[in-house]
Input
Amino acid sequence: MKEQQLLRDSSIEPTSKIIGEGLGAANSAYLEFIDELKNHNIQVYWHYYNDGKAWLGKALYKWTTIRGTEKEMTAFWLSIWNGFFRVSIYIPEKARADVLNLSLDDEIKKMIKDSKQMGKLKFFPLIFDLHSYNLIDEIYTLINFKKTII
Output
């Protein structure tokens, strides 16, 4: 089956039912992943982006500073594909060495080493296509790391 991004119609907002139909067998992993976000103070906000012609989930980590200022950071981006969901995490280039010191699978460390900086942006992407539960813990390790470098 060819990879195909779903949620392309701007007039149809993503619902649990629509997402579940698109994900099929990957839906249970998706639901567990989304449910766990609450424990990390992260909420996903769906928005239709004209540049990409698709609905994307922007996962925001929100906190209040010591002085009471409300802050937020994009933890990752979420997209729905036929049979899987994609989590895209953008790590600052200056943190590459630190992220390589995390307790991560060797394959993910290779992905970090091989990932190219995005043009003039000082970030490198880590893109995960999730069909099941098997990388969710690693992704949370990366998300929690990103929360510490803001």
Observations:
- Residues 12 and 80 are 14 Å apart (CA to CA).
- Residues 136-148 form the longest helix (13 residues).
